[in-house]
Write a structure and sequence with these properties.
Blueprint (H helix, E strand, L loop, with lengths): L5 E6 L5 H10 L4 E4 L13 H10 L3 E4 L7 H8 L3 H12 L2 H16 L2 E5 L8 H13 L2 E5 L8
Parallel strand pairs: 1-4, 1-5, 2-3, 2-4
Helix pairs in contact: 3-4
Length: about 160
């Protein structure tokens, strides 16, 4: 499998849905890969049905890989500002057979389709999607780009 130049990540925290879609379109994203354990949100426009609908209207695909989501205790650690604990908990989740299968599916499909990992947290350093992206980089050579521009340090 030949890896693409990069995989993007984005957190929708603080982004109105129309700005979120505009960023994805400007970046040439073809598919959003939702890596939330629970694809639901209190923020209007970001629940699974609403999100997949608005993405489809913009010509962007949607894939939910629940197995790559953070367990409840990892989400609690992240909300409490304990990213090291969240990463430890998430590493155990990522090591499961189900998560490994989802990660391999993601790597195969992202090799052919410009994809962007999605979660809530604006700061990728505080979010498990960075762990997923790091694993894609380590195992399959993906370069990682965090969106929007000011969200990450990989510029």
């Amino acid at each position: 499998m030949a890896a693409p130049a990069e995989i993007a990540t984005i957190g929708y925290e603080g982004l109105p849905p129309e700005d979120f879609v505009a960023i994805l379109r400007a970046e040439g994203v073809v598919r959003v890969v939702d890596v939330r354990a629970i694809a639901n949100s209190r923020r209007p426009g970001y629940s699974k049905r609403a999100l997949s609908g608005s993405l489809a209207a913009a010509g962007i695909g949607y894939l939910h890989l629940r197995a790559l989501g953070t367990p409840a205790e990892g989400r609690a650690a992240a909300r409490a500002g304990r990213p090291a604990e969240m990463r430890r908990i998430y590493a155990a989740q990522l090591a499961t057979a189900e998560a490994q299968a989802a990660l391999e599916e993601l790597a195969r499909s992202a090799a052919d389709t410009r994809s962007c990992l999605l979660c809530l947290e604006a700061d990728p350093a505080q979010c498990h999607r960075a762990c997923v992206a790091e694993e894609l980089a380590r195992r399959w050579g993906f370069a990682v780009r965090h969106l929007p521009e000011e969200a990450g340090e990989d510029r």
